[in-house]
Amino acid sequence: AINEVETIEFHATDKEFLNDLEAGFAKRSGEGFRGCVGAVDGISVAVRKPYLKETINPAAVQEPEKPKGYWIAMDDAYMTNEYYIGPSPGKNLGKAKDTFNFYQSKTRIHIEQAFGILVRRWGILWRRLECSMKHWSLIV
Question: Does position 1 have pLDDT exceeding 60, yes or no?
């Protein structure tokens, strides 16, 4: 599982912005969810081993303020908490959890498709990135 997520910023004080995001995700999920303001999916990109001078101290990274009542849909590779919500794990979950997983997946599917298009379109992602670590997020 992925225990840490790189900083995700939302304008936590801008209720109109968050409400617009929520309405968009509710529409995409078939009005199945309220409160979802984002979707996160992972992508595996091969990179060279970072040099020691390029690494950061994870303890120095601060979590952003999280708006109450809103959440981000994650896939099952990520740890779930009150703000990052992934699908219910396991099989034979019962109707309620299976329904939850269905709608939660509908909120993430477009980001998953976007990553597929991204990798297929940009050949630089077909091989290991050899550039400086500071450029990795600019490429991906």
Answer: no
**Residue 66 CA to its chain's centroid (Å):** 15
For residue 2, give every residue at least 6 positions away whose Cβ sits within 8 Å of its Cβ, in sequence order, or none: 42, 77, 78, 79
What share of the chain has pLDDT > 70, as a percent? 81
Q: What residue ranges in 18-76 does DSSP mark as E strands?
A: 36-40, 71-74
Question: Which residues lie below 8 Å from residue 92, measured CB to CB, with a gap of 6+?
Answer: none
* Distance from C-alpha of 9 to C-alpha of 26, rounded to nearest angstrom: 20
For 37-69, b/e burial (b = at least 16 CB within 10 A) is bbbbbeeebeeeeeeeeeeeeeeeeeeeebbee
Query: Which two structure tokens, joined as six digits, stand for 44?
Result: 């595996």
Tokens of 18: 């968050």
Residue 120 has pLDDT above 50, yes or no: yes
The rounded distance, in Å, linking the Cα atoms of 6 and 88 is 23
Could you give the dihedral angle defined by the CA atoms of residues 116, 122, 128 and 134, in that order, rounded to the nearest 10 degrees? -100
